[in-house]
Amino acid sequence: MNINLKSGAVVDRLGNAAVAALPASVQRPTYDRKAVRPGIVHIGLGAFCRAHVMVYTDEVLQQGATDWGVIGVDLMSPAIRDALNPQDGLYTLLSRDNGDDKLRVVGSILDVMVTADQKQEIFDLLMKPEIRIVTLTVTEKGYCQDAATGSLDEKNPVIISDLANPTDPRSVPGFLTEALRRRRDAGLAPFTVLVCDNLAQNGIKVRKIVTRFASLRDAELGRYISENVSFPCTMVDRITPATQDADRQSVASSLGVTDAWPVVTEPFRQWVIEDDFPLGRPEWEKAGAILVEDVTPYELMKLRCLNGSHSTLAYLSVVAGIETIADAMVDEDLPKVIRRLWDDDLIRTLPPVPGTDVVAYTHDLETRFRNTGVRHLTLQISWDGSQKLPPRLLEAASELYASGQNPRVIPLTVAAWMRFLSCRNELGQDYPVTDPHADRLTEIARNAGGDAARLADALLSVHEIFGEELPTNGHFRGEVVRHLSNMITHGVRYTIKAFLNEA
Ligand code: CS2
Fold first, then answer.
1. Which of 139, 239, 317, 325 gets mutated to test ligand 1 (max ligand atoms within 8 A of its CB)?
2. Sign of torsion over alpha carbons 52, 82, 249, 90
3. How many CB atoms lie within 10 A of CB 227?
4. 249 CA to middle of ligand 1, Å?
5. From the CB of 198, is ligand 1 less than 6 Å away?
6. Which one of 109, 257, 344, 418 has the lowest number of neighbouring Cβ atoms within 10 Å?
7. Which domains does the chain have, with CATH numbers?
8. Residue 345: CB partners within 8 Å, gap ≥ 6?
9. How would you class 24 by CB atoms within 10 Å of its CB: exposed for 0-12, middle for 13-18, buried for 19 or more?
């Protein structure tokens, strides 16, 4: 793969030098990237934010803004830095609508740094007044929360270690607290913290977690953060699976140069943001973001209807041996299960969503899930169920019970998750369970030895997932045990059919 430049030079990798010679069909930044100054630090440069926040920001830069470039920070590994920095921060976004591909090179990331060997430099960067926003996509577990209560998990070993060494933190709460302390001590206004992960009331929750961490460190610092730092809530949506080698190859053959880490996504995108940025923000609305006073209705709709049905499809599919969401959507029964989930359980828990017909939204979700261009592995969605089930489905179940109604499909999803913890699908193939509590959960599954009631009771008593009340609800427990017992004895497909045949 290489591109011949006008100068006669040949390049074989994406970067500033390659942009002008890319095929005409590839959209690319036409603004002067060298004139863009950083205004945002983004923590957690996974595929998701590169299909979303970075794209909205790129469009704002394209429309003339020059002070909202992004410096990416990775708290875990140097892989993304090593992929993007040799490309001048550029990467390709491949948007796929079934067979229809659109490529775009995104220019908003100016540099990538990693805490492993640049921690001091990163803190220095966060001390610059022009850094006014820290955006984050670190997944649900990145916040070190107790998923059932949404508060700081004070028993998390990384939190314990960060409280013992607060100026050399490794966790997200520890890192944000230390950066905010340094700014306060230098008399600088705090940056805004914009959490872009799938947590219910993500800004409120992370404010609570960071404030708690800071108070354990120093009560005054906790008070300072709680009173002075803005954590707007936001709902982010774009289905973006992890990049596969086949994607790299397909992007390279379309571009004429290699890209070490392109991102594949769907055409749809949505971003709703609570407009609370004391130090200013990019005009993301120019790129289609919706700025509102209250994100809650949008967030609940997305988290429950999209993510809740994703998790339902994921656990049932992994156990049945179905590899992708698009494959699940051509199954005879699985689409009927999520239709029931929306119609019978979830939609009735939602407040009105301004300007949105929620039933139409669920029909659009079906179309998005059917997109065969996006190979979204059900195993990937199965990751971190302990963190995902509470905000996606368990809170909705509790609300239904509190209003005197019974959830119908949520116990089936919970049973599928319990069956999934056995690490072996119905085709006899083994798969890994990826979860911060994986060891504990899979050990419970092993010890239950195929006894549905024993397995359900042991898992329902994991309070970090199910909280205190839901496990004591007889209907919930009964339904979970009934479906789980069916799954263990007759298999997941039989259980689904039996469920669909019930009135
Ligand atoms: C998915 C989400 O992996 C998962 O758990 O449900 O990543 C989902 O694709 C996004 O939230 C869509 O916006």
1. 239
2. positive
3. 8
4. 24
5. yes
6. 344
7. 2-292 (3.40.50.720), 296-500 (1.10.1040.10)
8. 396, 397, 400, 407, 408, 409, 410
9. exposed
